[in-house]
Design a protein that fits this description.
Layout lengths: L9 E3 L2 E4 L2 E2 H8 L4 E4 L1 H14 L4 E6 L6 H8 L4 E4 L2 H8 L8 E3 L6 H10 L2 E4 L2 H14 L4 E7 L7 E4 L9 E2 L3 H9 L4 E6 L3 E4 L2 H20 L7 E6 L14 H19 L4 E6 L1 H4 L3 E13 L2 E6 L23 E3 L9 E6 L8 E8 L7 E4 L21 E4 L1
Parallel strand pairs: 4-22, 5-6, 5-15, 6-7, 7-8, 8-9, 9-11, 9-12, 12-14, 14-15, 17-19
Antiparallel strand pairs: 1-2, 2-3, 4-16, 10-13, 16-17, 16-21, 18-21, 19-20
The structure holds pyridoxal-5'-phosphate.
Length: about 400
């Protein structure tokens, strides 16, 4: 199981353990299956890895939407430098932690006046996605008698290859088109707002270090160019993130060292020279939490249909949509899967693992080789720490919501 995500977790008498507790015991602790379990030690280790490899001048922000479980956000509050939120509820979760409000940024299209009021009152940084939003923020700040802290999210004039989700280069709902940013900056210089700087997010789930490096270089170039037209110094520069994690056996882990070197060159070269006042931020969701979590299900039925062995588990795509291939995969490939109580046992059979939903889409493992599993055994899906529960259609088929536990 080299390179298998299971290798990162501890064992207890041949059983997979999360946070040192075997998952069968965790199932009893949370009151049954299915459930999500996140490993606190792995979360801490992940931040430490990034701190070691990335230059110390670069600050780390956690994109809460990847996993908004309050305990996870609370734990990360003590480890990262800032939070990025994308809704009012995420903002409340972030502000319930010791993270100061001026280290919380609020991005995302379609922020309502009600959300903007909350953000202004809280004193978080609003990453403005359009000219209209900028006007509304200014007006609401005046109404509330509070000077809003703002940054401009830029829709760059380039896109990067190799990203699972590519943003920028053309028209999009995110950010202000880069060619329109100078005019907006002039307007904002005369408005009663605290203009801090820029934010560019160029894509997600990118496993190619070279393309992430290229994006970061181009974001810095673009920001320097726009800063020349800005009446104010840039004090905040959010370079986005998009660091991917391997989900299938075709994926290679991201080469973090290359990104670290590139970032060091940028912060100690052009950024220091042209944007000396900028607090430089990388914002990561998936890369911080994705590999730290598992989704645990129990076999409810084992059946053979015309020669094919099915394991039917008590979970499914309503909790972990991504593993079914219906969230961002063009071609369905299996996510890493294992039998929890025999985590290092040799595989002995090929089975199809399906969820309990009444739809053929609910496929969790297509012709996977596993040690034998019977009714009552626990099947674990890995890489479930990001975009799991909250990115799944929990209401579909009306089953109960699964537990989540941070161990
Ligand atoms: C979703 C999002 C992120 C996090 O993306 P990951 O791929 O999970 O790292 C970061 N920044 C913004 C603005 C986002 O919308």
């Amino acid at each position: 199981m080299t390179n298998h995500p299971a290798a990162a977790f501890a064992r207890d008498a041949g059983r997979l353990a999360v946070g040192g507790v075997p998952v069968d015991r965790l199932a009893d602790r949370v009151g049954g299956t299915p459930f999500f379990a996140y490993d606190r030690g792995l979360l801490t280790g992940r931040v430490q890895l990034l701190r070691t490899v990335l230059p110390s001048e670069v600050q780390l922000s956690y994109a809460v939407k990847a996993n908004p479980m309050p305990a996870v956000v609370q734990h990360l509050a003590g480890l990262v430098d800032s939070f990025d939120v994308a809704s009012a509820l995420e903002m409340r979760t972030a502000l319930d932690t010791p993270m100061p409000a001026d280290r919380v940024s609020f991005a995302g299209p379609g922020k309502t006046d009600a959300e903007l009021r909350q953000a202004i009152a809280a004193g978080v940084t609003i990453e403005m996605e359009s000219e209209n939003e900028a006007d509304r923020v200014t007006a609401l700040g005046r109404l509330l008698g509070i000077r809003p802290r703002v940054a401009v999210r830029i829709n760059p004039d380039f896109s990067v290859k190799g990203s699972g989700m590519r943003l920028g280069g053309g028209p999009q709902q995110f950010g202000v088109d880069s060619e329109r940013v100078p005019a907006l900056l002039k307007e904002l210089a005369n408005a009663d707002v605290e203009l801090l700087g820029f934010h560019v997010f160029a894509g997600s789930q990118n496993l190619r270090a070279d393309s992430i490096c290229e994006a970061q270089r181009r974001i810095v170039e673009l920001s320097i160019r726009l800063a020349e037209e800005s009446p104010l110094p840039v004090r905040y520069l959010n370079l986005g993130g998009g660091f991917g994690i391997p989900y299938t056996d075709r994926d290679q882990p991201l080469d973090l060292d290359t990104i670290g070197t590139n970032l060091a060159d940028l912060v100690r070269g052009p950024i220091r020279q042209a944007l000396p006042d900028a607090r430089v931020v990388i914002e990561l969701g998936r890369y911080l939490v994705g590999e730290c979590g598992v989704y645990v299900t129990r076999v409810v039925d084992r059946k053979i249909s015309r020669g094919r062995t099915y394991l039917v588990v008590d979970g499914g795509l309503h909790h972990q949509l991504a593993a079914s291939g219906n969230f961002g995969q063009a071609i369905r490939r299996n996510y890493p899967i294992a039998v929890a109580e025999r985590i290092d046992a040799e595989p002995t059979e090929t089975v199809t693992v399906v969820g309990c939903l009444c739809t053929p889409l609910d496929l969790l493992g297509d012709a996977v080789t596993l040690p034998r599993a019977d009714v009552g055994d626990l099947i674990v899906l890995f890489q479930a720490g990001a975009y799991g529960l909250t990115a799944s259609p929990t209401a579909f088929l009306s089953h109960p919501a699964p537990a989540e536990v941070l161990v």
